[in-house]
Structures are given as structure tokens and as C-alpha cells.
Amino acid sequence: MANFLFTWEMGANLGHLARLRPLMQLASRQGHTLSVALRNLRFAGKVLDGMDFRAFQAPFRQAVNPRPAQHCLSHAHTLEDFCFSQSDELAQYIKAWQEIFAAVRPDLIVYDTSPAALIASRDMTVGKIITGNGFFVPPTALRDGVFAPFLTTARDAKTMQILRENDRRMLELVNGACKRSGLSGFGGLQDIYAQADLALYATLPELDQFGARKGAHYLGPQPSFGSAPLTWPSGGRDKVFCYLHSFAGIDTLLRDLCAQDLKLLVYCRDLPEELRARLARAGNIAFSAEPVSIEAVGREARFVVHNAGDTTAAQFLQQGVPQLCVPMKQDQLLTALCLDRAGVGVTALHNSTSFLGEIRQLRERPGLRERALVYRQRYADFNWGQSEAWVGEQYRTLLATTGR
Questions:
Q1: Backbone conformation region of residue 182, classed left if phi is above 0, alpha if psi is from -120 to 50, else beta
Q2: Where are the beta strands (DSSP E) in 177-300?
Q3: Could you give all domains of the chain from N- to C-terminal order, each with its CATH number?
Q4: What are 362-395's pLDDT values in tens digits?
Q5: DSSP class of residue 155?
Q6: Which residues pair with residue 241 across a beta bridge?
Q7: CA distance 140 to 152
Q8: Is residue 345 left, alpha or beta, with left meaning phi > 0 and alpha meaning psi from -120 to 50?
Q9: Which residues have C-beta within 8 Å of that of residue 194, sequence separation ≥ 6?
């Protein structure tokens, strides 16, 4: 059978592993050999439990200092801020990826948010599948001559010209690294992604940060991998689940939630222990040490609170649950705005001094829960099993094309 390599290079949340998990399980059931090259191996054993695979540490930019979100206007800005900003830097990532490719000798590569891996495999004759949410699978058709400007970016002539110049500079950087590495260059940044044989959009059309795309195959969110029981506190009335990463304002957010007549269940891997102990004295908050079943939460929670990770947002949209989003990054902000437009979410700034207004909106806005239930009905028969059969056929087709 064939050698499959699954890569994850960019982004920090478990949603990346959650996306790869069913794709890996499918390849394993078809009898293929699995290898992974992951940004974060720490949770691989937990999320990918039960699968046999070779593991490699993916190369990635260790320290980032991104521009403020309001100045991040296109996918090229994201590449520059989080992936590479110099040719010699990218050339080293390419070299590291080439070492991994040499060790695995893949017949098919599945890339989850892995731009440097895509560049490094430029001249490889293998099957290539890119997957991710809409943000990380950017459109390859230019808009106003610009590669993947965000929907929130102004389309005035000055802004577009600045972005076109940035695209040219980034393309020169990429092609410089390719030349240094003995690779063919690209005609445009969009060609980094256009080389893929197939794009799998692991989201719902309503949550595509570049807008729903004609002809795209949306897989929907993968099933949640969590299984910890829902242990709600005794105090409070309405059940509210919080899936958060620690941030400067999390104390304020959780205190404002505790001040309501709510039963709070929180999953936050990096919440400071001192804050956890202090909040626990409120009597209407409990903490889960392990991921819980999103489907179980969807059956019980009045609303949910999270950082607008795409997988989490899509899972709860499918479950028909109103969502309070506290985005930390550009892709999360765009996801939160998608939920706002769908009429099922409220967005709060992560640096707010109070979240009481947003909590009140979520509890009192007319029609919010009813609109959320519309999406639950719309996607009641939309499940990963349906997508799985189609993806399995794509695996076979691509392997046949490459001679495996």
C-alpha cells in the first residue's frame, strides 16, 4: 500500500489535530502506512490515540511578533507574520521538510496549514491534499490583483496597491528560497496552494472566512474527540460551557459569567491554578480536566463561550447552540464575524474591561436561539460519515494517478 504523510505547521489549537484524525483513520482503514510531521507533538498521543504512525517534529517559526489584527489585511500578511519573512529563514524550513520527505518517501501528503511544507514539496510527484478551514485554504483566484485579501479589508485603490506590492515582495522572498534550495519558483503566491490536487474545506459554508465558494466540497466539522463527562456545578440555572485558552482578560470574563445565574463548566488547559481556585469559590463554576464531547454539550448548554476557533464554532453551529466569541487572532475574528452574520453569535473584544453587555445580548437578543436551531435542522443529516466515503474515493483516485 501507500505511504501517507500528514503535516501541521501553523496554528496552535487542537482543532488541527482534530481535523487530521479522521483523515488519518480513513487512510489507516485502507491499509496505508501513516507518518505525521506536527507543530505540536505534546497532545498527539491523546488526540490520535489508537493509531499506528511515525512521528516527526515539524519545522516552524518559533517566535512570532505579528502586526495588530487591524493591520493584517491578507493571507500574505499572515504568511509573513507567522511563517517566514526572510528567504534564508524559509530556505532552512525547506531543508528540514526535505529531510522529513526523504525519511518518509510519501506517496500522498495531506497538508493542514503547512505553507512551508507545500513550498518544499513543489517539485515532488506525489498526491497533494490541502485541508483546513477557509482561512487556511485561501482562494487561488486573485481579487483586485491581490492574493486572498480578507473580506474585512477595505478595497480602496491605495490599500489594494499596498497589498499588491506586498505580494510581489513576498513572492520574491519565496522564489529566492526556492532557488537557494534547488526548487522551481512560483508565478504567484496563489500557486503555492494551486499546486494541490484537492482542497478539503473542513468547515461549513457559513463559516468560510473568505465567503462560501462555488463548487467547493465542504466536509463540515469532524466529530469531537472529547469524551470526559459533563459535570455541572450545583449552583446556577442555565448551563453554559466555556472552551477557552487563557488570555489577559479571562479573569474578567469568567467573573462576569459567574456573576450571572448560570451553571458554568470550563475547559481551559492553561488556566492559572490560582485563578481556578479563586473562581471555584463562587459555587456555580466547575472545571473539566479533559476535553468533553461537543455533541453532549450541544444537547444541554443554553449557550457556549469560546475563542472562535473554527472547528469549535462549526461544531456548535451544527449543534444549534448560540455562541459568545472572544477572538484572539485574525482568523478567529473572521470566524466570529461569520457567526454574527449568521445571527447565532455575539463577538466580544478580548481586551474588554467588562463582558456583561455581550453576555446580556446573548441571553436576551430576540430570535438568537431560534436561528441557531435552524442551522441544527439544516445540518441534521450532514455528517462526517458522508464526507468520509467521498474522501476515501479521492485517496484511491490520487494514488492511482501517481502510480500507487
A1: left
A2: 198-201, 238-243, 262-267, 285-287
A3: 3-220+383-401 (3.40.50.2000), 238-378 (3.40.50.2000)
A4: 999 999 999 999 999 999 888 777 888 899 999 9
A5: -
A6: 265, 304
A7: 18
A8: beta
A9: 140
